[in-house]
Write a structure and sequence with these properties.
heterodimer, A: 443 residues, 7-stranded parallel β-sheet, 26% helix, 19% strand, B: 437 residues, 27% helix, globular
């Protein structure tokens, strides 16, 4: 199949089926910004930008930097502290596998330009030649694939302070030169695809220029037509200032995008546990969402046709902080009980009944799943949307009767919908976090 | 009141009443060992000792991470504490429901967290963060209305004065280290910071005679500015644990499982290590429910629960530890009256998962059940009830009433209806009984 470098042609390519099936991925923001690990209520990965543009955060980062590191300390001076001495790609992949996530997206290069692989276009500003001396992209890619998960790479189109990019930008509102794109961006993008064969390319840093400056359609034409991952690769929609929600693969909206309604196009909610994507040392325990809140975000995303990409920010030593790991393991626990309602599911004809009740369906066997965030006090759950019949059965996933056998719940047909009578049981017998009811033979 | 320098006199001093009342404290292990933050299976705070004595495991790790010519003292400048915020720490402790704090003023490495003249250039003011950690945290903890305690190691693994004393004989025939370093430091921390607890450790190599423990405690109880409020533990010599001193500590993580008539304390870790260990994965940390069970069992048997946290070298208490502390605080906000100011009941437990306390003033009895019975019927065989017995389940939110059946000559069954999971109290189940015996 050939896809020429036009949005019409590129947009006509179907998304590879694996992506919609898997529903849940882990985003990893990791780079030099993991060293200062500071933001004044914003994103820690934007440290260098806020340092150089004090009006963007009222000078908080600049004051912090001068106090902690000295006014003469440059951002590049952080690189020797990006030691990654506890980085263990196999351990990360194991944690991610236990979380129930099926794909991973690592920042191969964020807007600071520092690459997590040995990029010739980023000479002496990469994780192999400076800092840890590790091909982080390569090591993690190998571990993630060994775990049977899909590996994706985030790549920033622009670099805040790259002189080649700045020179291009200087030539005009729509730049008349593309030196940065030709000499750096295109080469890096092809390098990561050819060397690591990612199944997902997550573009960002799109908003300053139109896609024709970034040569996005040329790259995607090659990616979809000639690259070694042409049959499996998926991309997002951040390929130019005009592209978001219009062009590319899945749509991302803004960060933390969760519309709470069905989207006709495949989309992704890239969410954080705390506030920042990159590790922020200043985020306190209470700034992090608990597992139930995160699972609700996942459910409301999947019910509306989205994938849920949950971010972790490892620290400069290469450790995923234990409170983040706690959340991932809890989500994995919930998914181990309720996996059939998520993986391979599709939005149902109705997405939700109230904010506390959402639906998915399995289009192969016709099962409908109702996700209930709070059970009613009297044990009588009215679901007004499913149409029942005399064969309808309902089961609360994870609720076991005697000998560990699933228990069908008593059902009454009501107009509209069905009413389930949930047996009230001892607290430890309820499944944790969010309650998922499997409904069979409903319409 | 004067207490002479002999164990009979010293042991006759009553523990100040505040200590038994408060039941729950936070232990903090913080020092240069928070920088390498490494142990393979035990305590990260023993890093330096392991470096010298563990047949090379720690040395190999250090060579790999810091280079072959790196020595332990090189970690001190890396102990930067740049995120240390004592007000924030004290706020976390207050929210956890703890009422006292014990900070390692000096662990066995000899590095002091205050400016000690006896530890010149090996203290947190002159080397490393440039902060009087003991002073700052003491101020913040006291400002929160909590009691401040200081852990102090009697020995120092590698102090040449101590090593020379040790070499002089068994037991030592000289006590230069004690006279020149230890006793001066102990008096210094008491006079400067007026702690309500002095928590001794590192006692096991020598008898209390060598350490000058009785002389120090005589001064502490008779002449010091904290003589009315201070409580100490029992680690004042190799012969004193469980025998002499204030509260008894047993071994680390001590949980006797039965009533101990002498006041005691369970110093417990959330993970395995007291000091921060970067290599402890998330699963190595006990979850909140398990910690609460340990806490309850301790209090039911007359103990205090001292739960440890290990801040990292930047001075941050890791968020997964804070999560546990906040959960315990939530438990205590619901069930506090069953813990604070409580006393052991006439029977400590009915099974391994049902424990009791009582309030000797009001006569209320508290029963803690770790599990909810499958049939919803809690069976408390040991409680004597009557028609006037009233039972309350703390934190129970449903309007469906709890029912009681009392039996002769003893035994009460309580039926808690099956309700929506959010109507049950979190963690464990605590019942209050009025007009019961």
């Amino acid at each position: 199949q050939q896809y020429g470098p036009t949005w019409d042609q590129i947009n006509s390519r179907p998304l590879p089926g694996w992506y919609d099936d898997v529903k849940f991925g882990i985003f990893i923001h990791f780079g030099i910004y993991s060293v200062p690990a500071f933001a004044n209520g914003g994103y820690a990965e934007w440290y260098w930008w806020t340092l150089k543009n004090p009006s963007s955060d009222g000078g908080a980062t600049q004051r912090y930097h001068e106090k902690e590191f000295g006014a003469n300390f440059t951002y590049q001076d952080f690189v020797s502290r990006f030691d990654c001495r506890l980085f263990d790609a196999n351990e990360w992949a194991s944690i991610i596998e236990k979380s129930g996530a099926k794909y991973v997206v690592l920042t191969s290069k964020h807007h600071e330009g520092y690459t997590l692989w040995n990029s010739e276009q980023s000479w002496n500003w990469n994780s192999v030649e400076t800092g840890p001396g590790i091909d982080i992209v390569g090591e993690l890619t190998k571990s993630v694939k060994n775990m049977g998960l899909h590996m994706g790479l985030y790549h920033s189109l622009f670099e805040w302070f790259n002189p080649l990019y700045l020179a291009d930008a200087e030539t005009g509102k729509n730049p008349t030169t593309q030196v940065y794109v030709d000499e750096i961006l295109m080469k890096q993008l092809k390098d990561i695809v050819t060397t690591y064969e990612p199944e997902l390319i997550w573009a960002d840093g799109d908003w300053m220029q139109l896609s024709n400056y970034w040569k996005s359609t040329e790259f995607l034409s090659w990616l979809y037509t000639n690259s070694s991952v042409k049959d499996t690769v998926i991309v997002n929609d951040r390929w130019g200032s005009e592209c978001r929600d219009k062009n590319g693969g899945f749509y991302t909206g803004a960060d933390h995008f969760n519309p709470y309604k069905l989207q006709s196009h495949k989309w992704e909610n890239c969410a954080t546990i705390g506030y920042s994507y990159g590790y922020d040392e200043y985020e306190q325990a209470t700034d992090y969402q608990n597992a139930t809140e995160l699972i609700i975000d996942l459910v409301t995303t999947v019910a509306c046709g989205g994938n849920f990409l949950l971010d972790v920010g490892p620290d400069a030593q290469g450790t995923i902080p234990n409170n983040m790991v706690d959340r991932l393991l809890e989500i994995g626990n919930w998914l181990s009980i309720n996996s059939e309602s998520i993986y391979g599911s599709s939005p149902w004809r109705v997405q939700n009944m109230t904010f506390n009740i959402w639906y998915t369906t399995n289009t192969t066997n016709g099962n409908v799943y109702a996700f209930v965030f709070e059970l009613p006090d009297d044990g009588v759950l009215i679901l007004s949307d499913p149409i029942g019949n005399n064969k309808t059965e309902a089961t609360l996933l994870g609720l076991k009767g005697e000998k560990g056998v699933e228990v069908s719940l008593p059902i009454e047909s009501t107009k509209p919908g069905i009413t389930l009578n949930i047996p009230m049981v001892a607290p430890q017998d309820y499944p944790p976090y969010v309650y998922v009811f499997r409904l069979t033979d409903v319409e | 009141q004067s207490y002479n320098a002999n164990w009979t006199d010293l042991n006759s001093r009553p523990n100040p009443g505040w200590y038994d009342q408060v039941k729950f404290g936070i232990f903090i292990h913080f020092g240069v060992y928070s920088v390498p933050a490494f142990a393979t299976h035990d305590y990260a705070e023993w890093y330096w000792y392991n470096l010298v004595n563990d047949n090379g495991t720690t040395q190999k790790w250090q060579d790999q991470h810091f280079g072959e010519h790196f020595q332990y003292q090189d970690f001190a400048p890396m102990f930067n504490c740049r995120l240390f915020n004592p007000d924030e720490w004290a706020s976390i402790f207050q929210k956890s429901g703890a009422k006292y704090v014990v900070l390692t003023s000096k662990h066995h490495e000899g590095y002091t967290l205050w400016k000690s003249d006896q530890s010149w250039s090996w203290n947190s003011v002159e080397n490393g963060p440039g902060i009087d950690i003991v002073g700052k945290l003491t101020n913040s903890v006291k400002a929160q209305g909590l009691h401040m305690g200081l852990y102090h190691s009697l020995y120092e693994w590698f102090n040449p004065l101590y090593l020379a004393d040790k070499k002089s004989g068994n037991p030592p025939t000289q006590n230069t280290y004690v006279k020149e370093v230890l006793l001066n430091q102990l008096r210094d921390i008491v006079l400067k910071y007026e702690p309500d607890i002095v928590w001794a450790d590192g006692e096991w190599e020598q008898y209390s005679d060598y350490w000058g423990s009785k002389e120090f405690l005589s001064w502490l109880y008779s002449d010091s500015p904290v003589k009315e409020t201070v409580v100490v533990n029992d680690r004042w010599g190799k012969e004193t644990r469980g025998v002499d001193g204030g509260f008894y500590t047993g071994g680390d993580n001590w949980q006797p499982g039965h009533l101990v008539t002498h006041k005691w304390e369970n110093c417990q870790t959330i993970g395995s290590s007291y000091g921060y260990n970067e290599n402890e994965p998330a699963e190595a940390y006990q979850d909140s429910t398990i910690l609460i069970q340990e806490f309850v069992e301790t209090v039911a048997c007359g103990g205090n629960f001292l739960l440890d946290v290990g801040p990292n070298a930047e001075g941050v208490i890791p968020n997964n530890m804070v999560d546990r502390l906040y959960d315990i605080g939530k438990f205590l906000s619901i069930n506090g009256e069953s813990i604070y100011g409580s006393s052991p009941w006439r029977i400590q437990n009915q099974t391994q998962s049902i424990w009791f306390t009582t309030n000797t003033t009001t006569g209320a009895i508290y029963a803690f059940s770790y599990y909810f019975p499958e049939d919803g019927v809690f069976n408390f065989n040991e409680i004597i009830g009557s028609k006037s017995t009233i039972v309350e389940l703390f934190g129970y939110k449903s309007k469906n009433p709890i029912t009681i059946e009392t039996y002769q000559p003893k035994g009460i069954n309580i039926t808690v209806p099956f309700v929506s999971p959010s109507d049950y109290p979190p963690f464990i189940y605590v019942f209050k009984f009025i007009n019961a015996y």
